[in-house]
């Protein structure tokens, strides 16, 4: 096994005769050049840790997990969705999703008129409204059993932790790319290129799934294969057509 930072050497031992009755050993030791050593090390690591491609990037809300904003949150405030949109602050939620403000600042400016509301009650309302989209958890399990690398790629604030607490989504994927961490939101192409820089892969080595067509179009613009999510069955069919193995192990 070749270890990083250690330059291997090769020893060659020969027999030679100094007198008719005396035989001595001559041991010659050659040290490999650093460049050759790095090459050998790289080959060893590549063979032992080969990365499975493509990498799967998933939007979360209304792709993997139901978004409670459109029904549960208006009901919490005793409003219709249209009424809620009309009276909420136009940028506060986006700022919260980008991590520019914390939840206390969100509570202060959520409504344009600055009215108070029960922040903890709102969080509980949203927590209760999170659940897996039909068929998604089984699909994620099958992908995990087939050793696909999967990451969340989502526009969501720090409240993604509420989703994790309830659904344990990290059993299947990593919460790697959240807008609140990067200060960017889809469909900003800079967010997509940031993802590629982090993963250190070519765009063609990724598949991105989202329920919003404009986000899928942004992924295609940077060279990532995009899939517009409609339901779990159609997603499974589309992934299969793209060569993704979704055969499930019934024993697990």
Automatic annotation (TrEMBL):
InterPro entries reported for this sequence: HAD-like_sf, HAD-SF_hydro_IA, HAD_sf
Protein name: Uncharacterized protein
SUPFAM superfamilies linked: HAD-like
Gene3D superfamilies: HAD superfamily/HAD-like
Lineage, opening ranks: Eukaryota, Viridiplantae, Streptophyta, Embryophyta, Tracheophyta
Pfam families the UniProt entry points to: Hydrolase (PF00702)
Superkingdom to which the source organism belongs: Eukaryota
NCBIfam families: HAD-SF-IA-v3
């Amino acid at each position: 096994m070749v270890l990083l930072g250690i330059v291997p050497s090769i020893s060659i031992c020969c027999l030679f005769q100094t007198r008719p009755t005396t035989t001595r050993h001559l041991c010659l030791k050659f040290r490999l050049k650093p460049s050759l050593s790095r090459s050998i090390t790289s080959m060893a690591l590549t063979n032992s840790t080969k990365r499975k491609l493509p990498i799967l990037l998933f939007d979360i809300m209304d792709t993997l997990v139901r978004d409670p904003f459109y029904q549960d949150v208006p009901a919490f405030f005793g409003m219709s969705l249209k009424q809620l949109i009309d009276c909420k602050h136009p940028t506060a939620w986006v700022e919260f999703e980008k991590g520019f403000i914390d939840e206390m600042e969100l509570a202060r400016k959520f409504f344009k008129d600055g009215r108070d509301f029960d922040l903890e009650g709102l969080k509980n309302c949203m927590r209760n409204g999170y659940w897996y989209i039909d068929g998604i958890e089984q699909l994620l399990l099958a992908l995990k059993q087939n050793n696909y690398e999967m990451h969340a790629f989502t526009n969501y604030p720090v409240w993604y932790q509420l989703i994790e607490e309830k659904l344990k989504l990290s059993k299947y994927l990593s919460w790697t790319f959240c807008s609140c961490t990067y200060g960017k939101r889809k469909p900003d192409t800079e967010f997509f290129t940031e993802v590629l820089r982090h993963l250190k892969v070519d765009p063609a080595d990724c598949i991105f799934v989202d329920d919003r067509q404009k986000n899928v179009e942004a992924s295609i613009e940077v060279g990532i294969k995009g899939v517009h999510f409609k339901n779990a069955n159609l997603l499974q069919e589309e992934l299969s057509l793209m060569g993704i193995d979704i055969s499930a192990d019934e024993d697990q």
